[in-house]
Hints:
Radius of gyration: 48 Å
Structural class: alpha+beta
Shape: elongated
Oligomer: single chain
Strand content: 15-25%
Amino acid sequence: MKDVQQINWPMLPTLSPGTAAAMVQPLRWLVGAADWALTLPMHRRKRISDSQIWLITEKEIITNIQNLKSPAAFLLMAILILISFFLMSADYQKRMDNWSNNQVAQKDKLFSGMTSSYRSTESMMMNARGIPREPLLRRPLPLSMFAKGLDSVMERSVTIGDNSVVPVATSFTLGTTQERNRNLLLFAPPDYLYVIKIILSLLAMFFTYDALVGERESGTLKAMLSGAVRRRTILVGKWFGASISIIVPFLFATGIGFAYLVFAYEGWTSVHVDGPVNHVPVLSVSNTNVSATAGQTVQLSSYLSATDADGDSLVYVFYDSTVGGGRIYANGVAQPEGNGQMFGVAASQLSQTTFVAGASGDDILVGVTDGKSFSGWTSVHIGPPVNHAPVVYVSDQTWSGGASVPVTKLFLVSDADGNAMTAYQFQDGNANAASGHFVVNGVAQAANQTIDVTPSQLAQTTFLAGHNTVDHLMVRAFDGTTWSDWKQFDLTSLA
């Protein structure tokens, strides 16, 4: 055997014992912490199982299960919670439907205005009584299914300034509650909060009324007190046992209730189907200012017509705001007037609908509906023609001294109705001797008085200018019914 040749390896670096111990120590701490964390539950379980409070608590829980208190409480709470969730979810759905209908009513021009409902008879004659505007409701809160509280009361509408005694925007009217289930107004709502406040409180009394008396009657109370057990330990153990016996069934019953809500709606898939789009009917009024003398009968179908793109049956809606004036007749029957009362006439009966004019003009509102949408209101005036006052146009002028100016050059007049003027009036506000003056048929007119001129005299009426003066002149015209406003202008006379 050959001798092993010795090899000289290079020297490796070494650590001192202190440095090595310092590096290993954090690892020891980490392993110790992991061991403590793993063994902590066992130590805690051992301490709890040996605790006198836990022994009494465990005995109380087992006793409540054996005497059927806990099963009965679980069954009772499960039934009540299921009934509560069923009733309150249905009530919430009804209030949501009420809110949805209210939103539709707010968008409808007919039902959000002078009336909110109408009824049709078999003869397609619609009669309605105007009632206040449909109130605006607040959307119900989803959590009101579990704790309704004041949610149904808070849904009431508030109208600001709708008071004839108190000025606008300083008063409010609280509308009636929008609760659809009127029976719930007589009793507390059977919501989840009711189960907690009432039922759970009664069960707590049911579980604890014989907690100590039962131990005394069975003779076990003396046995417990004979040992090294404090009285407060017994009370705390009894309290823990009763609480756990109530809370655990309550939580399980609540879980069943929520599972009902989840599975009751989980199987449903919301599908929105767009029905045919309804087109708003269109009302056409050929003349919104119908001339009629007192007692004259006006055929309304001569001025009203309506079309509907969907071909729906139409109903004309009328409202006559004037009481005691003209009157609308349908099939010879006088219809309501004023006081917010409206009525409807089927399109097929419009030819039998007339208006008998009164001594003064009447303004009626007319619209058309297809039962789904309303066209909106159009105002129609029926009666003597509405006369518009004539309008006089003037401007300041300058003329040479002593000039004779025809008055027709001093002003212009127009009348929207095309009526001819039947009279004129002039005034000269400068009485100075050197000032000018009006001349009618060659007769000089004094200043500071009203000068009446007929149309036949207008051509022979002039104004004779003064010298180095300014005359303040006024003029107005009469169309046989109404005078125009006075119009003033200045006429400057040169030297």
